[in-house]
């Protein structure tokens, strides 16, 4: 089998052990004679899978008992609408921190629903850092942040401190489970699975039960968080195989020692590549300011477009996959989510060093 | 491996050949060194999968060129809202044919959006047949039907004839690809995949391009059909593995000879079981009226609740899975979607005959 190093931004690398387990039991889950994909979502075998995922996630992330864990569909993009539809009520203002394209998209959807306010933004500095100086509006419905910005390669390093009555809502699609998070400071966390949690097709929502009382009755049933909370995410057929894969990934994280261990490993992986950038005499440049650098998506540029193309071509020849920057900003990007092994980051760091040396 | 006969109502049986192919290439898709789940949705390898599915479906269902094929998430339940949000405009009335619980749910969501009208209903007869005597409202936005009713076991045998300006919209979640359909008579067809198309997690929408002009701009982006049509269903990350499985299932249908051959086989499978019911001297009773009987979900009852329990227990001991009726109405149900082999239906027919004989 071809040896490749997968730095895709999402859908991204999955742990090899997880894929191997899924392969072994693909036609015969727990001696049932059936594939997980063929199980009824109302069967005990399937419900055990989903409950296992929920318990694992609760333990790994230390999610308090007064939070529900929901499995939805449609990715973060549908959450951009679901959040204001559920919580941006008459007379209130939805507050957004703009830290990149994804938070802009979230804001755009909220504007269709009601009044909004930009509480902070680093747009003027080309999103090269996480915005500071939070200024909330009157009557804030909530404050929304994007915890990690895949395109610009920045990441919140702390949790914004808010008055207790202002719900903090975060899109953690690209760094959930990559580091310890004080869940109790958030009212709602959502994440598309396809970076750190599993394959695409399932969206995890962690929500404080108290907040659910605000969901209005008139919403489309499938956009009301209450529907999922009341029915254990089984109001209709969930994406069963994606949730099964999620449960295997969560087992894998536990096997690694848990989130703290994963966090330390992620820091080591990121440091390897940032070190090459910082010691390259500006051959490689990281557009993200050091204090805001993401441990999930390392973005960098080369001196010219020609060199960038050459770098990406040669990298691809060496088995590195997914190193092109987002089509919106170009350059290069290494996405080093949980499942990307340290050894692959070492290979990339070495390749970057060699490429520069050869150029000199 | 345990031999089981899967009659689940959905998620349901998948063709064994499809699961075997998925298993073989689970860690190494087309010698890429990657799982399909690890491919970027912007990679050529993935786009080829999705395009292949689209071309296959277009050919198998004979979908005209002026129709788009979209891949969405959230199942039929989210379509219940998306349809009226996109097409139930001011001054118009959404028309619904009530043929069972799913059409009731579709109507309920439409009522949240605008004015509705029940164009026909068989509710008074306990949904034992497909409703007749269509009476549309003034200014109909569209007419919505549920082509097959999984819970009651009935199925439309013809396509309602409407004036050209009234869009016909159908939920075909449970019988798409099971028989030849005159797609050109429909303006929009939607289907959750988990019965005849693949695993749960992807919703196929077939929509006349002309109709898309009516989608209002102010909708949440992820609920606007235009978003999916304009971006080739790649506005955000689609459920890539589910679409890959769909593409394999479509290849399998082609290998069987196409939809006409599948339809003939489905009729033969259904006839086997209906014949046992009809020749059982009312030991088994089919609540669906003969002219409305579904070839996908065969529902039947036994003389007493005790016998039903005994039947289900013994069936389960013999490896039959998923024969309980829907929790709403009880009784028994054999779901015999495309992937359920004729041999399994023969086994079930024989078991039903033996069970009755033993009881006599």
UniProtKB/TrEMBL annotation, chains A, B:
Its EC number is 2.6.1.52. GO terms for molecular function: O-phospho-L-serine:2-oxoglutarate aminotransferase activity. It is found in: Cytoplasm. Keywords: Amino-acid biosynthesis, Aminotransferase, Cytoplasm, Pyridoxal phosphate, Serine biosynthesis, Transferase. Residues 4-343 form the Aminotransferase class V domain. Binds 1 pyridoxal phosphate per subunit. It holds the Pfam family Aminotran_5. It catalyses: O-phospho-L-serine + 2-oxoglutarate = 3-phosphooxypyruvate + L-glutamate; 4-(phosphooxy)-L-threonine + 2-oxoglutarate = (R)-3-hydroxy-2-oxo-4-phosphooxybutanoate + L-glutamate. Signal peptide: none annotated. The modification N6-(pyridoxal phosphate)lysine is found at residue 195. The keyword Protein transport does not apply. Its main location: cytoplasm. InterPro entries: Aminotrans_V_dom, Pser_aminoTfrase, PyrdxlP-dep_Trfase, PyrdxlP-dep_Trfase_major, PyrdxlP-dep_Trfase_small. L-glutamate binds at residue 42. Pyridoxal 5'-phosphate binds at residues 76-77, 102, 150, 171, 194, 236-237. Its cofactor is pyridoxal 5'-phosphate. The keyword Metal-binding does not apply. Pathway: Amino-acid biosynthesis; L-serine biosynthesis; L-serine from 3-phospho-D-glycerate: step 2/3. Homodimer. Belongs to the class-V pyridoxal-phosphate-dependent aminotransferase family. SerC subfamily. Catalyzes the reversible conversion of 3-phosphohydroxypyruvate to phosphoserine and of 3-hydroxy-2-oxo-4-phosphonooxybutanoate to phosphohydroxythreonine. This is Phosphoserine aminotransferase. It comes from Sutcliffiella tianshenii.
């Amino acid at each position: 089998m071809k040896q490749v190093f997968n730095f895709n931004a999402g859908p991204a690398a999955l742990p090899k052990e997880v894929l191997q387990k899924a392969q072994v039991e693909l036609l015969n889950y727990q001696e049932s004679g059936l594939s997980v994909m063929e199980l009824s979502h109302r069967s005990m075998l399937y419900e055990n899978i989903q409950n296992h995922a929920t318990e694992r996630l609760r333990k790994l992330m230390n999610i308090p008992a007064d939070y529900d864990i929901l499995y939805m569909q449609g990715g973060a993009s549908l959450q951009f609408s679901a959040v204001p539809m559920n919580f941006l009520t008459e007379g209130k203002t939805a507050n957004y921190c703009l830290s990149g394209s994804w938070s802009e998209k979230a804001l755009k959807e909220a504007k269709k629903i009601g009044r909004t306010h930009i509480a902070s933004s680093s747009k003027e500095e080309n999103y090269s850092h996480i915005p500071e100086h939070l200024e909330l509006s009157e009557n804030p419905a909530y404050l929304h942040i994007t915890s990690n910005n895949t395109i610009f390669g920045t990441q919140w390093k702390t949790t914004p401190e808010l008055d207790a009555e202002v719900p903090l809502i975060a899109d953690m699609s690209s760094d959930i489970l990559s580091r310890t998070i004080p869940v109790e400071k958030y009212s709602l966390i959502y994440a598309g699975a396809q970076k750190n949690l599993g394959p695409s097709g399932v969206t995890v929502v962690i929500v404080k039960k108290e907040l659910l009382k605000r969901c209005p009755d008139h919403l489309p049933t499938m956009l009301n968080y209450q529907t999922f909370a009341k029915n254990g995410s089984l109001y209709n057929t969930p994406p069963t195989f994606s949730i099964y894969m999620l449960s295997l990934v969560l087992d894998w994280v536990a096997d690694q020692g848990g989130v703290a261990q994963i966090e330390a490993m992620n820091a080591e992986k990121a440091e390897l590549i940032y070190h090459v950038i910082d010691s390259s005499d500006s051959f490689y440049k990281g557009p993200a300011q050091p204090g805001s650098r993401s441990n999930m998506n390392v973005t960098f540029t080369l001196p010219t477009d020609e060199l960038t193309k050459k770098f990406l071509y040669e990298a691809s020849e060496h088995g590195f996959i997914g190193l092109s920057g987002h089509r919106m900003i170009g350059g290069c990007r290494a996405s080093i989510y949980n499942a990307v092994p340290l050894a692959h980051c070492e290979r990339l760091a070495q390749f970057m060093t060699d490429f520069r040396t050869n150029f000199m």
